[in-house]
Amino acid sequence: MEFTAKQIADMIGGHVEGNEQATVNTFAKIEEGKPGAISFLSNPKYTHYLYDTQSSVVLINEDVELEKPVAATLIRVKNAYESVAKLLQLYESMKPRKTGIEPQAYVSEKATLGKDVYIGAFAYIGDGAVIGDGSQIYPHTVIGDGVTIGEKCTLFPNVTIYQGCKLGNNVTIHAGSVIGADGFGFAPNTEGYDKIPQIGIVVIEDNVEIGANTCIDRSTMGQTVIHQGVKLDNLIQVAHNCEIGENTVMSAQVGMAGSTKIGAWCMVGGQAGFSGHIHVADKTFVGAQCGVIGNTKGDGETLIGSPAVNPKMYFKARALDAKLPDMYRQIAAMQRELDELKMIVEVER
């Protein structure tokens, strides 16, 4: 597919500087630009590439001031990063979607499939499963009995959805993820552990995207819930009876213990961990490798470190770390002096 700079500007509400008829047919990073590509500049650190890039068209913010001539055609927009995201979404939506059931797939006679559904080779669709219009189930994916999948969902290869779980519309789940495995519930006894049956389900609402090899456990009773608009990275563990609020995002390797409630519009950095049975308020920012062990205070709070504290307290503590060796030597010297004084006092007695 090929588009002119003018066509692109019309799509995203931008203004062209240069050749309106410059054409592009691919995307490229600004530092790796080539003829026929469109790039974008949103980070000021990369501004110097603007003057040398070989890309035919570059998206830039309206407030960028040029220091010298630029060979590429420019499209000025309010936010270059948001605009390139919109273009990539348009580009992706123009790709043809697969439809039909490949011969090697197994689809239960008791399953219900909507219009224009795709079922890949060696996929398994269980009894009573419902798959909405336009959804795509890629090879080796397993859809358990009684699972409901909404419209325009995409489940990539080797995804497993256990029995009874429910997915809304426009849900994307990447390869290797497991939705609805048993929560980690065991009761100790004199001989070991008794397994606590996990009889609940997982509910994933509309417009959720889940990265590769992420696991979301079914609830002991009731529901583990991922609310609409949530974006989860790869290798995340969501335990039984957890709840993640709408439009919250999490980076890779986050771990949530059972019955944790995360609010809406939170941002969670990689490898952060949450203790069980706690509540994290809306719009909380949780830094990478943060250890959250209790309820958070309120909207808009920022937490870093483990155990998690506010940044001011964290950096004060880290500043003291460098002084600890000197403080130890000083305390040791004071202890020696004190011992000597004690000896003198004992002798004088």
Write the layout of secondary structure elements.
Layout: E1 3-4, H1 5-12, E2 15-17, E3 23-24, E4 26-27, E5 37-41, E6 57-61, E7 73-77, H2 80-93, E8 100-101, E9 106-107, E10 112-113, E11 118-119, E12 124-125, E13 130-131, E14 136-137, E15 142-143, E16 148-149, E17 154-155, E18 160-161, E19 166-167, E20 172-173, E21 178-181, E22 186-189, E23 192-195, E24 201-204, E25 209-210, E26 215-217, E27 223-226, E28 231-232, E29 237-238, E30 243-244, E31 249-250, E32 255-256, E33 261-262, E34 267-268, E35 273-274, E36 279-280, E37 285-286, E38 291-292, E39 302-303, H3 311-321, H4 324-348
Parallel strand pairs: 4-5, 5-6, 6-7, 8-11, 9-12, 10-13, 11-14, 12-15, 13-16, 14-17, 15-18, 16-19, 17-20, 18-21, 19-24, 20-25, 21-26, 24-27, 25-28, 26-29, 27-30, 28-31, 29-32, 30-33, 31-34, 32-35, 33-36, 34-37, 35-38, 37-39
Antiparallel strand pairs: 1-3, 2-7, 22-23
Describe the 3D structure:
The protein has 349 residues and is an alpha/beta fold. Helices cover 17% and strands 28% of the residues. It has 4 helices and 39 strands. The strands form 6 sheets. An 11-stranded parallel β-sheet has the order 8-11-14-17-20-25-28-31-34-37-39, with no helix packed on it. A 10-stranded parallel β-sheet has the order 9-12-15-18-21-26-29-32-35-38, with no helix packed on it. A 9-stranded parallel β-sheet has the order 10-13-16-19-24-27-30-33-36, with no helix packed on it. The model has no long low-confidence stretch (mean pLDDT 95).
